[in-house]
Amino acid sequence: MADAPDDPRPGQPGQLGQPGGEARRSQLRPETVAIRAGRDDNDRALAPILWATTTFVTPTVEEGRRLATMAGSHRFYSRYGNPTVRGFEDAIAALEGAEAARAFASGMGALSGVVLGLCSAGDHVVAQRQLYAGTQLLLQSVCPRFGIEVTFVDATEPGAFAAAVRPGETVLVLAETPANPRLDLADLDELGAIAGPITVVDSTFATPLGQRPLDHGVDLVVHSATKAIAGHNDATIGVVAGARDLLDWLWSFAVLQGANASPFDAMNALRGLRTLGVRLRQQTESAHRLAEVLEQHPHVAEVRYPGLDSHPQRDLAKRQMNLAGGLLTFDLAGGLDAGRTFVESVRIAQLASSLGGPETLVTHPASTTHVSLTPEELAANGIGPGTVRVSVGLEHPDDLVADVLQALDRIA
To answer: Is 75 a catalytic residue?
Structure first.
């Protein structure tokens, strides 16, 4: 048997991209899977191949009918699927231990595809209160227009999700952990044990290397892969992974929804995925150091980071997270003036609303990511006028700490 071009051990059957490759993949560490997976359409190329075409030629009418009606068709029309996009989907499925995945044009495209693809008028959803504002607005503003009722619960309260489930009515239970921006955690084992409704976790902050919700019995995992997965601020893409029957159902809705991922963004996301392991380890190390420095500063009232012993759910973080990640949030005692001064005074870090890239970014949630929430909703989410979120990048930690300290020194 000739050596396969993507064989990590030449001459051995059952490698990635070959028959039996799934079994071999399950024996590899996640960082290795991130590099090896998603190469089925690469031929002998090491880099992802960009299939920029929107349309593929079909040789016969019957073949066209087959491709137009099969779930996951990736050589028919790129709204249905695309080889470059499928490579990214396959890689995420492998990393999450899922049977299948579907990519979308953004994280919100993926999330709305799950909610609206699975729920109908008269259905009930249970979701946590601590959420990214876009998700919260989708649930509290858009869902009621379609007759979908949503109950919000405190994700940090043990048993809160299960207690809110209405047997026969609740279709979806939705969690975001760690939550944006306060890094509150939902217990994945509790979510996975809920019988009846479909359980969904937005795991964007953690990435597949930080935690794997499906291993805890959760049905679907969602990522805004725009963030740490792609990791270079040059791709806008979302993804959902889980059991194949659920993904086939979501694929049918996604084709009609039309929020399909572009091949170019999928190529960039797949390229970024290759270095997720080293990036996340470095960002975790730097974030932990920065969090410890902030905890000791007199201008800082509180620091939230899952890797600190002071995090109120530290034991849960140790139980379900492999890495604490590169995100931290802190509250400045001086309120809005202090928050504004800090985010406008950093020089190495930059004021921007995304996360997970190589550059350290600072964000003032009350005026950006969560600006659409009312004062009461901000308070319920624990977001104050002095709350600052930091996405730690890949700069040298000494330079980053010095930059943060000089910005704090400018606060009156």
So the answer is: no
Q: What is the pLDDT of residues 60-76, one digit of tens each?
A: 998 888 888 878 788 88
Q: What angle do CA 299, 303, 309 make, to 5 degrees?
A: 130
Q: Are residues 110 and 207 in the same domain?
A: yes
363: three-class secondary structure by DSSP: strand
Strand order through the sheet with 238-242: 100-104, 238-242, 220-224, 198-202, 170-176, 124-128, 149-153
The answer as to whether 98 is a domain residue is yes
Stretch 356-374: mean pLDDT: 89
- Let me know if 79 is a catalytic residue: yes
- Tens digits of residue pLDDT in 224-272: 999 999 999 999 999 999 999 999 999 999 999 999 999 999 999 999 9
Report pTM.
Answer: 0.91
Is 227 catalytic? The answer is yes
- Is 132 in the active site? yes
The one catalytic residue in 36, 39, 227, 389 is: 227
Q: Is residue 100 part of a domain?
A: yes
Query: How many structural domains does the chain have?
Result: 2
Dihedral through CA 308, CA 312, CA 318, CA 323, nearest 10?
-50
Report the CATH number at residue 81: 3.40.640.10
Task: Quote the CA–CA distance of 252 and 258 in Å, as a whole number.
Answer: 10
